[in-house]
Amino acid sequence: GVVTLVGAVLLWPSGEAADELQGSVGFAAEGSSFPEGVVEEVQPACPVQPASEGPGGSPTRGEDCGNLVVTVDDGADEGREVVVPVAPQVSQAGLEPGDRVELLRAPAPEGGEPSITFFGIERSASLWWAAGLFVLVVLLVARFRGLMALVGLGFAGLVVGYFLLPALLAGAAAVPVALVASTVIMFVVIYTTHGVS
């Protein structure tokens, strides 16, 4: 336990390094935003056509297939109806009018209009319902032990989120960080799950 605590102190990630890293890594153009929208219409996936039929040898895409018609729900384009092309897997994923999606709004090029594209399906409500059902089942089946197991699971998530991942991203050695994180989790989870003995 003492060695684990010393290791945690020595390997604790620098908050400044984590903030600097977070600010330097981006997966979208500067000025991009991620507004949500409500699906108004789901067009069927476009039929597959030979590549030779399209201009320049690329497959052709119809104007009334393979798109979502979405009303932007927040941000600078709130209330605007946009047509966004999507992959066939998205068209066939069971989306219906009224479902929520996340969009990517890229900044406008000089003298142009900002572009809005599909980013993902908004599933947070479904995930919260699934998590609530999971907690309910654990509490019904295991009662107090289940509650303590959930406390241990939450603690493990905190260790991973606030120690393990930031330390690895900041460049700390992987094996010592993993050993310290797993040992800290083990000390707490064993006692919360099985009781103090």
Q: Determine the N-to-C terminus distance.
A: 16 Å
Oligomer: single chain
Strand arrangement across the biggest beta sheet: 3-2-1-4-5
Number of helices: 5
**How is the main sheet built?**
5 strands, antiparallel
Structural class: alpha+beta
How many E strands?
5
Percentage of β-strand residues: 15-25%
Provide tags for this entry.
5 strands, 197 residues, five-stranded antiparallel sheet, alpha+beta, 46% helix, 5 helices, flat
Question: How does this model look, in words?
Answer:
The chain is α+β, with helices and mostly antiparallel strands and 197 residues long. 46% of the residues lie in helices and 16% in strands. The protein has five helices and five strands; from the N terminus they run ααβββαββαα. The chain has a five-stranded antiparallel sheet, with no helix packed on it. Strand 2 (67-72) and strand 3 form a beta hairpin. The two termini are 16 Å apart. The mean pLDDT is 85.
Quick recap:
With 197 residues, the protein is an alpha+beta fold. It contains 5 helices and 5 strands.
Topology diagram in text:
Blueprint: H1 2-11, H2 15-24, E1 36-42, E2 67-72, E3 81-85, H3 88-91, E4 100-106, E5 115-121, H4 124-169, H5 174-194
Antiparallel strand pairs: 1-2, 1-4, 2-3, 4-5
